[in-house]
Specification:
The structure holds two protein chains of two kinds. By secondary structure, chain A is α/β, with parallel strands linked by helices. Chain A has one domain (6-547): FAD/NAD(P)-binding domain. Chain A is built from nine helices and 18 strands. In chain A, β1, α1 (15-26) and β2 form a beta-alpha-beta unit. In chain A, α1 (15-26) packs parallel to α5 and α1 packs parallel to α9. The longest helix of chain A is centred in the C-terminal third of the chain and has 22 residues, at 526-547. Chain A is globular. By secondary structure, chain B is mainly α. Chain B has one domain. Chain B is built from eight helices and no strands. The longest helix of chain B is centred in the middle third of the chain and has 19 residues, at 90-108. The termini of chain B are close together. The chains are: A alpha/beta, B mainly alpha. Chains A and B meet through α7 of A and α6, α7 and α8 of B.
Chain lengths: 550, 179
């Protein structure tokens, strides 16, 4: 039986969907926001170093469900495996209200002008679908500003000469420097680089009725017990609900977009928290499930006019799956660098995002988030025995004397890095699951090596007595920064949505999340997803007002 | 602020609490060399398997001036997780332990637990080569049980956290434990 008709149904309450729900509800539209995960609160802050969103050896704390949501991974050698959320290769992003923004580290980067014009800047890259965005930085700038001020960003990028022009500074100052900052900042200066304070969606002073960060060590991967770290769960989603126009339904797994005979959406079919199949009729459908789940939902929404899935007439849905290829270096020091001050990540440079000789793109470099003892296992250098006294002694003596500098290398999109539907495996609800396959582009790895060498040089200048590199592997890249699978473009032959994020040839279905990014910048994508969601919501409301008498 | 979580004791569910209590009780009875007594209520391991796993873990993270995996009760962590999240690894452990013992017998004519430390290391070097998947599994689990939160059954008395000089209890933020 169908539920009461609403103006819009938004699938996914993460970064994109949270903003859309708030913008539409504030404009007076009736909205249903569907989220497959739960709504956690700051009180759900179990400080568990083996069971959180960052370290998932005992499970992914903020979803998706370990048993109900398998995927299939096809590795480089063509071997197929059924994987669970906490397995490597699943490419997990959180499934909860707030999505990734509930438990992320909260870096709040604006992409640079060239990040929107990668093809024009660097030309064609062999075997890559590298392209420009259909919009420019200047189109997004007002919305970056809106996200920064409405949600609240702290930091100070005045020392970054490479940043794209901004009209307003950030609304909050940075946190006081931690010890890594005090060592790395002057070292970067000595190298002629341009260090500055990382912008973060994090209150450093009381803002929007929430408190300031208390600098605990339980940051990225954990719930913020003060709610000082900012996501859609503690900003736009409560604002959407406060309008009285938006209903949030958690534990709801969307099966497909319902279409009429002309392939116009009439709503969605979903399984509610009790497992009952429901139909939610709506005038607009907004897909905001993240790059893997959004693509999966379109592929699962078949129609006579779209036999291979909605918006997939030209076979582009699910293609170009990308993320970031983190590259950098670890450094061992003779003095203590660990001061137990969260969030840890504090100082960055953008000297190597662009203009690297012979290379397309690059990455920001920054010091890493604070580390718990178990996380230190990944920082033991390759020349130390993997077990026995030597390993233990290294952990004991080096835990407080190690720093990591790394950055999210912008990836060259690969047409064959993709999300498909698995022909056999179904999830708990009987819905075909995502099947992931493909590899990274060799040039991405080349850029990664370059970035790692620059991180190493920075650490050495800072006094590291030993350094060792972290370079990306060839395997498929997805995970928390997943993007690209429903490319935004002007040409329907080579993209899935238009510049307003509306699916080509479908009147009333939008994809608003990182799926639409043609390329993903050399930066954490959170703020760009939020800004683009504000922008796309504006366009959507304009179209809505043009068609409907309010 | 309230006092609710100021205690160093991690929050344990009832089952976890019972499990941890059991291991602590067993450990306190024989404080120096052995934390396991035959007949202790293991969830998955036989008493012999538990002894073998404990001996393997004790070589992977040995005691020195600080407690090692044996003293930190890592075998308790592994046994507990094999009845929960790591159920899927039960077969791997059963076969892996047998393989380690077989390697001990073929090299030195004795099961693993009866070998000297030096010979145990030699056997583990061979196991690392010949039974790679099991070796990786038990190494990862030993690290988790030693460096991870005590609420999961290992890291008794926060041994590893004390070793790296981490202020504890790490339950609240800085403003709380600086208070």
């Amino acid at each position: 039986m169908a539920l009461k008709h609403v103006n819009a149904v938004v699938v996914g309450a993460g970064a994109g969907g949270g903003v859309v729900a708030k913008e539409l509800a504030t404009a007076g539209l009736s909205v249903v926001l569907l989220e497959r995960g739960r709504w956690y609160s700051a009180a759900d802050c179990r400080k568990d170093d083996l069971f959180n969103q960052r370290t998932q050896v005992l499970g992914a704390k903020f979803g998706p469900d370990e048993e109900r949501d398998p995927r299939v991974l096809v590795d480089e050698s063509g071997r197929e495996m059924v994987v669970s959320p906490s397995d490597g290769g699943y490419s997990n992003n959180a499934a909860c209200v707030g999505g990734g923004t509930f438990s992320y580290g909260a870096m709040a980067w604006r992409y640079m002008e060239k990040d929107f014009r990668m093809r024009s800047t660097y030309g064609a890259v062999e075997d890559s679908t590298l392209d420009d965005w259909p919009i420019a930085y200047s189109d997004l700038e007002p919305y970056y500003e809106k996200a920064e001020w409405e949600m609240g960003v702290s930091g100070d990028d005045s020392g970054n000469p490479f940043k794209a022009p901004r009209r307003k500074p950030l609304p909050m100052p940075p946190l006081a420097p931690n010890r890594e900052y005090e060592v790395l900042h002057p070292a970067a200066r000595r190298l002629g680089l341009h260090p500055f304070d990382i912008p973060m969606l994090r209150n450093t002073v009381p803002y929007n009725g929430r408190r300031a960060c208390m600098r605990c060590r339980w940051c990225v991967g954990f719930a913020c017990e003060l709610s000082a770290r900012t996501g859609t769960h503690n900003t736009v989603i409560p604002a959407a609900l406060a309008t009285g126009n938006c209903e949030l339904r958690t534990g709801c797994m969307t099966r497909e977009i319902l279409l009429d005979s002309r392939a116009r959406a009439t709503g969605v079919a979903y399984f509610d928290a009790g497992g009952r199949l429901q139909e939610q009729p709506a005038g607009l459908v907004i897909v905001s499930g993240g790059a893997i789940e959004s693509a999966r939902l379109l592929l699962n929404s078949k129609h006579r006019l779209f036999p291979n899935g909605l918006g997939n007439r030209n076979g582009w849905v699910g293609r170009n799956l990308q993320s970031h290829s983190y590259s950098g270096a670890n450094g061992l020091f003779e003095f203590e660098t660990f001061d137990d001050l969260g969030p840890g990540a504090s100082v960055a440079i953008c000297d190597y995002n662009h203009g690297n000789p012979g290379l397309a793109g690059g990455a920001l470099l920054a010091n890493e988030f604070i580390r718990l003892p178990y996380q230190f296992m990944a920082l033991v250098p390759p020349w130390i025995s993997r077990w026995g006294s030597e390993h233990k002694d290294f952990v004991r003596t080096a835990y407080r004397r190690t720093m990591v500098v790394m950055g999210p290398v912008q990836e060259m999109p690969m047409f064959d890095a993709r999300v498909q539907l698995d022909p056999k495996v179904k999830d708990y609800w009987g819905i075909p699951v995502a099947r992931l396959s493909g590899t990274r582009h060799p040039h991405t790895i080349e850029v990664g090596r370059f970035i790692a060498s620059k991180a190493e040089a920075w650490l050495k200048e800072a006094g590291a007595v030993e350094t060792w590199k972290r370079v990306p592997s060839k395997s498929l890249s997805g995970g928390q920064h997943q993007a690209g699978t429903c490319r935004m473009g002007n040409d329907p032959q080579t993209s899935v949505v238009d510049a307003s994020c509306r699916i080509h040839d479908v009147d009333n279905v939008y994809v608003i999340d990182a799926s639409v990014h043609p390329t993903n910048g050399g930066f954490n994508p959170g703020l760009t997803i939020l800004a683009n969601a504000y922008r796309a919501s504006g366009a959507l409301l304009q179209a809505w007002k043009g068609k409907v008498r309010l | 602020m309230n006092n609710r979580r100021r205690s160093a004791k991690p929050a344990l569910g009832r089952r976890e609490f019972m499990g941890a209590g059991l291991a602590v009780a067993a450990g306190s009875a024989v404080s120096c060399s052995r934390s396991i007594e035959p007949g202790a209520g293991w969830r998955f391991f036989t008493a012999a398997e538990a002894l073998a796993v404990e001996a393997i873990c004790a070589q992977l993270i040995p005691a020195d001036q600080d407690p090692g995996a044996r003293e930190a009760g890592v075998v308790n962590f592994i046994d507990l997780q094999l009845s929960r999240r790591y159920k899927k690894h039960r077969g791997a452990y059963r076969q892996g332990i047998a393989a380690v013992d077989a390697a001990g017998r073929s090299k030195f004519g004795k099961p693993f637990v009866e070998l000297t430390g030096e010979r145990q290391i030699e056997v583990l070097n061979a196991v690392e080569e010949d039974s790679r998947p099991f070796f990786e599994l038990i190494l990862a689990h030993t690290r988790q049980g030693f460096y991870g939160d005590p609420r999961h059954g290992g890291n008794r008395n926060m041994a590893s956290w004390k070793m790296v000089g981490l202020p504890y209890p790490p339950l609240r933020g800085r403003e709380h434990y600086q208070g």
